[in-house]
C-alpha cells in the first residue's frame, strides 16, 4: 500500500547570494532548509531543499552518517540535484527542454516527496520538482535497497503545455562529489575483447563514455563504471561508487570536473540524435541508473551489485541454471539431423542438461548456410531438418536431455523472404545505399507491426514446440542505417523507441513464459545491461573462448554482474589443456561447445567428474560472495574465491597466466571466511595425479583465521595451469 509520509510545499524565494555561482548552495544556519534523506544499511544520499531558493541540492553521498541533521550545519558547496538548462547551472545540466514559446530554460523547484515501502528491504522515494513558470513536472524516483546497499534512480517528465515540448536531454541521474581526486575505471572493448579495464585519474573538464551503436550497443563500451575517490581504491580499501545504466541502447556517462574540483556524473540515455517530442500529459520515463557506494573498496561494491542483481536485477537470479552443450563452434552452419542427434547423445554422455542448437537451422528460399542469407525466415530448413524442430525436441526427451534453440528475431538479411515481403519493416534510408554489418539489417522495432512480428516469431515457436526448454537470443548488428519509415518526421525518437519497444516485447513474452531460461547474446557481450537482464537468466560474455583471454573478460564482468549470469563455455579455442579450459569456465555459468567424440577416455572422465563437481558446488559459485584475491591485471596469475552465506563452504580458483624464469608465487590470503571455523582444503578437478598442481595444503585443515592471515599456496608457477580448491568447514 502506498503511504504518503511527507509532502511539503515550499515558499519560493528568489535571489542569489553575492559572489556565489548560480546553481550552487552554501553556508550554514538556514533553519528553513530541509533535508531529504535516502538511506541503505551503510550509505546516505542526502538532499537539501534550500529555504533560500526552493531548489533541491545534493548535500551528501557516502558512508552512513550517525546524525544526518549535521548536514544542516554543513559548509560544503552543494550542487543542484537535477539542474535544468538555463536556470542556474553553468555546467552540464541534467535536463534540457524547449517550451511551446521557444523558451529553452527550465528552473526546477522542489515541491515535496512521497515514499512507500514495497517490503522491509526496499524504500521507494518520489521527489517532485516543477518549473517556476512553465507547467513541467519532473519526478526523481529513487529506490533504496537497504541490505544490498544499492540505490536505483530514474526520472519521469510530464508537462501540461498546449503542444508537445522537445526534450533534448533527460538524465536518469546526476550525482555530485567533492573529493581531492577522482579515479575512473571504465570497461571497454570490441568483438571478442569485451570488458577491458582501464583506470585513469579524471582531470578538469569533461570525460564521456558513451555509445551510438543503437543495437549491439555495448560492443565498444559497457554501461558500467567504478569511480574511486581520493586515490585509487583497492579490493578492500577506499571509497568507491560502482554505477551502471539499465539501458540496452545508446547510453552516456558524463564526468565533469569544474574549476573548484567538484565532479558531476550524469548518467542516462545518450542525447545524441535523440531529442524527444513529448506530448502534453504523456510521461517520459528514463531508464534506471543503479549504483552502490562502498567505503571498503571495489570488492564490497561488486558484492553489493551481485546481491542486488540476484534479488532484483536478473531474471530468476536466485534460481537454478542448466548446463549446456552448444554446437556453434563445433559445427557452425554445417549440420544435419543425424549430426544433431549425435550431439543430443553427447549431451547425455557428458551429464549436461540441455543441447542448444545455434544459428543455421532455418530458412528455405535463401537457406541459412552462412551469415549471408536467411535471417528473418524462421521456418526450419527442410534440407537440414526434414522432420522439423519437433523431431529434435522429441529425440532430446527420449534421450533424457532438454532442447534449446538460437534466434535473432530483431534482424534480417537482405537476402531473405522477410525482406522481400516487408522492405518497409527494415531500418534503412529511403534514398541511400544500405550499409550492412555482418551482411544484415536491423528491423524497425519502433513499428508496432514489427513488434508483433518479433513477439509472434518467438511465441509461435514456443507454442508449436512447448518442449523447447532454452533460448539464446542474439543480436549481431548495430543500427547502421538510422532511419525508420514508420517514424516519419520523428526520426530522433528511433534510438529510444527501439529499446522501449524491445522491452515491451520482452515483457509480453515474459508474461506468457515467466521462467523459461533465455541467454542474452549480442555477438558475444554486445548487449549486457540490467535493462535487458530483467528478462534474461544469463548472458553470453564473449565469442572469445580462449581461456587465457577469457580470464580477463570474466574478471571484468565480475565487477558488476554475478557469476550465475555469466556464461562461459569450454571450447577448442586456445591451445591450453582441457583442465585449464574447464577451470576457467567453472568460475561462472559453465557450459560446453566441443567435439565430445574427440575426447579420449581420460578427458571424457575428467569432464564428467568436473560437471559433477560443478553441480555440487554451483550454489556456492553462483550465489556465494565473490572475493577477487589476485588480479590478472597486477600479477602473473589470477585468484578468486566464492564463499557461501553461512561461511561453511568456499571454492577457490587459481590460474597461472605466465611466469618468469625462477618466479615463485607467495601464499594467497583467503577472505570472507569465519576465523573461528576450521576448514579442510581439497583440490578438485584433478586431471591426473602426475600433473596435479599439488599444493602441500590440499588435504589439510586450517582455521579461518590462519587462512585469512597466512593463506595457502594456490597453484603452481607453470604458465597456463590452474587449480580449483573446495574449502569446507
Ligand atoms: C554470435 C554469437 O555470439 C555466437 O555465439 C553465435 O551464436 C553466432 N552469433 C551465430 O551466428
Describe this protein's structure.
- With 729 residues, this protein is of the alpha+beta class.
- Among the domains are: 3-313, Beta-galactosidase, Chain A, domain 5, CATH 2.70.98; 627-728, Sandwich (Immunoglobulin-like), CATH 2.60.40.1180.
- It contains 11 helices and 37 strands.
- Strands 7, 8, 9, 10, 12, 13, 15, 16, 20 and 21 form a 10-stranded antiparallel beta sheet that branches. An 8-stranded parallel beta sheet has the order 22-23-24-27-28-29-30-31. Strands 6, 11, 14, 17, 18 and 19 form a 6-stranded antiparallel beta sheet that branches.
- The model is unreliable at 1-19 (pLDDT under 50).
- Give the N-to-C terminal Cα separation: 44 Å
The CATH first-level class of one domain comes to: Mainly Beta
Provide the list of bound ligands, each named once. Answer: (2R,3S,4R,5S)-2-(hydroxymethyl)piperidine-3,4,5-triol
CATH architecture of one domain: Distorted Sandwich
Counting helices, strands and paired strands, the structural category is: alpha+beta
Q: How would you state the average pLDDT, rounded?
A: 94
CATH topology of one domain: Beta-galactosidase, Chain A, domain 5
Taking Cα atoms only, what radius of gyration do you get, to the nearest Å?
Answer: 27 Å
Main pleated-sheet profile: 10 strands, antiparallel
β content, as a range? 25-35%
Helix content: 10-25%
Shape estimate:
globular
Total of helices? 11
CATH superfamily of one domain: alpha-galactosidase from lactobacil brevis
Amino acid at each position: 500500500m502506498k503511504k504518503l509520509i511527507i509532502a511539503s510545499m515550499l515558499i519560493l524565494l528568489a535571489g542569489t547570494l553575492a559572489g556565489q555561482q548560480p546553481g550552487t548552495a552554501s553556508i550554514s544556519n538556514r533553519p528553513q532548509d530541509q533535508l531529504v534523506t535516502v538511506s541503505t544499511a551503510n550509505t546516505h544520499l542526502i538532499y537539501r531543499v534550500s529555504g533560500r531558493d526552493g531548489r533541491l541540492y545534493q548535500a551528501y553521498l557516502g558512508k552512513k552518517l550517525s546524525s544526518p541533521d549535521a548536514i544542516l550545519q554543513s559548509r560544503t558547496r552543494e550542487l543542484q540535484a537535477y539542474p535544468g538548462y538555463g536556470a542556474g547551472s553553468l555546467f552540464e545540466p541534467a535536463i534540457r527542454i524547449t517550451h511551446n514559446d521557444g523558451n529553452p530554460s527550465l528552473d526546477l523547484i522542489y515541491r515535496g516527496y512521497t515514499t512507500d515501502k514495497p517490503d522491509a528491504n526496499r524504500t521507494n522515494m518520489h521527489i517532485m520538482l516543477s518549473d517556476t513558470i512553465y507547467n513541467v513536472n519532473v519526478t526523481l524516483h529513487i529506490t533504496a535497497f537497504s541490505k544490498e546497499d544499492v540505490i536505483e534512480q530514474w526520472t519521469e517528465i510530464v508537462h501540461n503545455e498546449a503542444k508537445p515540448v522537445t526534450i533534448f536531454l533527460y538524465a536518469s541521474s546526476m550525482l555530485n562529489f567533492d573529493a581531492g581526486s577522482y579515479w575512473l575505471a571504465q570497461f571497454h572493448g570490441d568483438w571478442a575483447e569485451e570488458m577491458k579495464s582501464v583506470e585513469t585519474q579524471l582531470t578538469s573538464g569533461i570525460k564521456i563514455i558513451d555509445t551510438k551503436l543503437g543495437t549491439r550497443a555495448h560492443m565498444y563500451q559497457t554501461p558500467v563504471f567504478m569511480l574511486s575517490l581520493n586515490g585509487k581504491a583497492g579490493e578492500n580499501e577506499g571509497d568507491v561508487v560502482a554505477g551502471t545504466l539499465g539501458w540496452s541502447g545508446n547510453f552516456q556517462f558524463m564526468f565533469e570536473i569544474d574549476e573548484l574540483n567538484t565532479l558531476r556524473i550524469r548518467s542516462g540515455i545518450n542525447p545524441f540524435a535523440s531529442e524527444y517530442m513529448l506530448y502534453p500529459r504523456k510521461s517520459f520515463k528514463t531508464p534506471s541508473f543503479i549504483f552502490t557506494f562502498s567505503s571498503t573498496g571495489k570488492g564490497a561494491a561488486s558484492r553489493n551489485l551481485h546481491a542486488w542483481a540476484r534479488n532484483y536485477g536478473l531474471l530468476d537470479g536466485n534460481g537454478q541454471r542448466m548446463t549446456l552443450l552448444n554446437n556453434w563452434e563445433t559445427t557452425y552452419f554445417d549440420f544435419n539431423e543425424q549430426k544433431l542427434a549425435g550431439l543430443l547423445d553427447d549431451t547425455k554422455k557428458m551429464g549436461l542438461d540441455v543441447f542448444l542448437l545455434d544459428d543455421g537451422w532455418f530458412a528455405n528460399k535463401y537457406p541459412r548456410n552462412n551469415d549471408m542469407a536467411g535471417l528473418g525466415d524462421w521456418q526450419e530448413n527442410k534440407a537440414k531438418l526434414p522432420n522439423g524442430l519437433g523431431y529434435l525436441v522429441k529425440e532430446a526427451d527420449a534421450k533424457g536431455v532438454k532442447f534449446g534453440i538460437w534466434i535473432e528475431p530483431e534482424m534480417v538479411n537482405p537476402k531473405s523472404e522477410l525482406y522481400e515481403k516487408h522492405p518497409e519493416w527494415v531500418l534503412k534510408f529511403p534514398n541511400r545505399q544500405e550499409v550492412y554489418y555482418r551482411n544484415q539489417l536491423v528491423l524497425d522495432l519502433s513499428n508496432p507491426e514489427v513488434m508483433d512480428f518479433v513477439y509472434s516469431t518467438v511465441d509461435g515457436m514456443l507454442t508449436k514446440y512447448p518442449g523447447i526448454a532454452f533460448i539464446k537470443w542474439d543480436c549481431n548488428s548495430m543500427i547502421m542505417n538510422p532511419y525508420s519509415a514508420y517514424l516519419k518526421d520523428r526520426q530522433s525518437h528511433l534510438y529510444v523507441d527501439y529499446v522501449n519497444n524491445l522491452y515491451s516485447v520482452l515483457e509480453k513474452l515474459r508474461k506468457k513464459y515467466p521462467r523459461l531460461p533465455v541467454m542474452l547474446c549480442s555477438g558475444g557481450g554486445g548487449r549486457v545491461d540490467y535493462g535487458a537482464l530483467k528478462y534474461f537468466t544469463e548472458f553470453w560474455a564473449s565469442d572469445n573462448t580462449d581461456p587465457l583471454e577469457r580470464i580477463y573478460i570474466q574478471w571484468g564482468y565480475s565487477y558488476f554482474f554475478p557469476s550465475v549470469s555469466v556464461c562461459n563455455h569450454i571450447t577448442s579455442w586456445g591451445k591450453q589443456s582441457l583442465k585449464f579450459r574447464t577451470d576457467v569456465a567453472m568460475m561462472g555459468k559453465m557450459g560446453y561447445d566441443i567435439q565430445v567424440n574427440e575426447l579420449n577416455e581420460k578427458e571424457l572422465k575428467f569432464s564428467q567428474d568436473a560437471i559433477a563437481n560443478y553441480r555440487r558446488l554451483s550454489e556456492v559459485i553462483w550465489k556465494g560472495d565473490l572475493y577477487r584475491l589476485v588480479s590478472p591485471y597486477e600479477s602473473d596469475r589470477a585468484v578468486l574465491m566464492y564463499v557461501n552465506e553461512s561461511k561453511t563452504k568456499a571454492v577457490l580458483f587459481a590460474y597461472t597466466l605466465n611466469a618468469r624464469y625462477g618466479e615463485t608465487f607467495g601464499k594467497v590470503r583467503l577472505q570472507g571466511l569465519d576465523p573461528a571455523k576450521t576448514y579442510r582444503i581439497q583440490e578438485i578437478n584433478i586431471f591426473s595425479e602426475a600433473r596435479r598442481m599439488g599444493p602441500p595444503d590440499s588435504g589439510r585443515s586450517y582455521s579461518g583465521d590462519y587462512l585469512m592471515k597466512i593463506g595457502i599456496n594456490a597453484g603452481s608457477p607453470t604458465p597456463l595451469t590452474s587449480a580449483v580448491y573446495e574449502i569446507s568447514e
